[in-house]
Amino acid sequence: MKMLAIRDNLNQCFSALRAHKLRASLTMLGLTLGVATLITVMTIVQGANVFVEQKIANLGTDVFQVARTPFAVTDFNIIIKALKYRKIELDDMLAVEERCTACDEVGASASASVRARYNGKEVQDVSLAGETANMVFIDTRTVDQGRFFTPSEDQHRSGVCLIGDTLVQQLFDGVTPLGKTIRIGDEELMVIGTMDKIGSVLGQDQDNFVMVPLSVFLKMKGIHSSLTINVKAGKRNFEQAQDEAQLILRARRHLTAGMENDFFIGTKESYMALWRSISSSFFAVFIMVSVISIVVGGIVIMNVMLVSVTARRREIGVRRAMGATKSDILRQFMAESVIQCVAGGTIGISIGFLLALALRKFTPFPASVQTWVAIMGVVMSSAVGLFFGIYPAMRASRLDPVVALRSE
After folding, report:
1. 82 and 69 in contact (C-beta within 8 Å)?
2. Of 228, 225, 222, 193, nearest to 210 (Cα)?
3. What angle do helix axes 326-362 and 371-397 make, rounded to 10 degrees?
4. What angle do CA 295, 300, 305 make, to 5 degrees?
């Protein structure tokens, strides 16, 4: 009998909703828009976090960098101050490589902007990256075709290079560039490899680069360029490796105990911490607006349900006269509220995911569609239905049957 009562109650709910389709649709509309906005924002937030972790913070979890200027900072004055610091040179990298017992691999890199030319074609604003040969074991990027340069080629300043996918497409029209010679400034370099495509990061092309041995870079751009030291260490020795590298550099720079570092150490977590600090307040505003939309949708549902109670007083009176209890009326109106909210929330979830997928497909903006976000949307919709349906349902259940039957 209990299951039959529940089934009958649900039948009453669906019959009432079908009888007032327009009212039910308008009731769900507010919640649908609110949930759709929330789901869209959440998928973008999740996608952006994954995007930043994979693209911007592309260091391995076991790699840290040391440079003259900060890697992640929001205060421009710190950068101005850092530019006055002593440059990091090749001897600094060699000292860390020699003395750091917790470091597995120690390499160096540097970068500058150049133009690349081949067979009458030219690409502007190309990033010229100089790296030591062992960066192949440190850098997370991988070789697509060909090979990386060898320590011997780095030592003898061999005119070889690897290029990114942008140069492959724009200079060679997709034809393999291996063995071809390109001109970078006054230097001619033979292409011995290409790197895997990375794509754009927040509108910045990450494949528009030429990678050369560090010795070639220093020959082209001057030996006074400040380098970035790249260190790979095991997870157990990661903190120790940072401490050792810091002590080695402080000793070389004659920094006493009371003096602050004139260099900066960056890890994957430092990039992610900066991103979280920048994005948290930005996305919090969007999420707050979405939640407000859902609350407004809940208030609309409550008011429409109150109007529905007034309009259906005679129906309530008839049901009470036929033996329905206050609990039956309460459950019916609560069920109607929850059903409308869940339906509106489900539609909102679908719209939100479709918008997120459209953003991911047709724009460079990231979006990550995750199951838990959909579950959260359904739970929130149900909670809104329960909360804002309580008062109208109680009003309906407390109606006097005689007074309700007299209403027109």
Report:
1. yes
2. 193
3. 150
4. 125
Tokens linked to 219: 């020959």
In angstroms, the CA 20 to CA 339 distance is 14
Beta-carbon contacts of residue 381 (< 8 Å; ≥ 6 apart): 31, 35, 341, 342, 344, 345, 346, 348
Query: Residue 71 contacts by C-beta under 8 Å, 6 or more apart in sequence?
Result: 65, 264, 266, 270, 271
Spatial distance between the Cα atoms of 383 and 229, rounded to a whole number of angstroms: 53
Exposure b/e, 113-131, CB count within 10 A at least 16 = b: ebebbbeeeebeebbbbbb
What is the distance between the alpha carbons of residues 312 and 407, in angstroms, rounded to a whole number? 9
Q: Are strands 187-195 and 200-201 parallel, antiparallel or unpaired?
A: unpaired
Give the pLDDT confidence of 47-97 residue by residue, as tens digits: 777 776 665 655 667 888 898 888 766 667 877 887 788 888 889 999 999
pLDDT in tens, 30-47: 778 778 877 887 787 777
Dmax over Cα atoms in the chain, in whole Å? 102
Does residue 327 sit in helix, strand or coil?
A: helix
Our separate counts of H helices and E strands in the chain read 13, 12
Q: Position 198: which residue type?
A: I
Pairing mode, if any, of strands 160-163 and 209-213? Answer: antiparallel
